[in-house]
Write a structure and sequence with these properties.
This protein is α/β, with parallel strands linked by helices. Helix content is 23%, strand content 30%. The strands form 2 sheets. Strands 1, 2, 6, 7, 8, 9, 10 and 11 form an 8-stranded mixed β-sheet that branches. Strands 4-3-5 form a 3-stranded mixed β-sheet, with no helix packed on it.
Length: 216
């Protein structure tokens, strides 16, 4: 059984980390159900275990939180749905690579609900969308923007941290970092793509697509 929690308002980042760690410990002990927690945060930057100091281009802009999740720098803020994923990967095959692929597939299936074709790109983490409305890249390829980031941590085979999907954040806030260490591609959101999707609608789509990916 997976418990779904949706928090209203803006959730303090350190409080969220502490809550996740406690819940992950309880899941590993067998004293709590798995959990998907949907939140929004105040504007902030987080540094994953692979973050490079040169990728924090505006360190005074927002609070920067060091965190032990995988990945590099990311932004969180209002208008972005953060999906904290506390699942027992041990009981789901102990295949971390497959688990991350399932998270990617979940995001792609959710975006497809809104007729957005998300994709995975070799050598780049997260989920991307093509932007034929933008100029071609220097290589003559169709431009691609990132719409979702993924970064997890495992403790005793239980995951925490998770996914962030851009619904309608202030995209200018991403300019204080090099998101996930990738400087030659942009960032987008559902609303930036011309879709007036609400946070509630995204939450419904996430839950609708979850079982097909994780419960089959």
């Amino acid at each position: 059984m997976v418990e779904w929690i949706i928090s209203d308002g803006l959730t303090d980042y350190r409080a969220a980390e502490a809550w996740m760690e406690t819940r992950a410990t309880r899941i590993a002990e067998g004293s709590a159900d798995e959990c998907i927690w949907l939140v929004e945060h105040p504007p902030l930057y987080t540094a994953g275990t692979s973050a490079k100091v040169q990728d924090l281009t505006d360190p005074e802009r927002f609070t920067v939180y060091e965190t032990r999740r995988g990945g590099q720098y990311t932004y969180h803020g209002p208008g972005q749905r953060v999906v904290y994923v506390m699942l027992d990967v041990g009981k789901r095959g102990r295949d971390v690579r497959r688990f991350v692929q399932d998270l990617e597939a979940w995001v792609i299936a959710t975006l497809d609900t809104f007729n957005i074709k998300g994709k995975i790109c070799e050598g780049r983490v997260g989920v991307w969308v093509e932007r034929p409305d933008k100029p071609l890249t220097l290589n003559g390829d169709i431009a691609e923007d990132k719409i979702a980031a993924i970064g997890i941590r495992l403790r005793k085979w239980v995951s925490f941290h998770g996914i962030s999907i851009n619904v309608e954040p202030d995209l200018d806030h991403f300019t204080g970092i090099v998101p996930c260490g990738i400087s030659d591609h942009g960032v987008t959101s559902l609303v930036d793509l011309g879709l007036p999707v609400t946070m509630d609608a995204l939450d419904v789509a996430l839950r609708a697509q979850f079982d097909a990916i994780f419960e089959n």
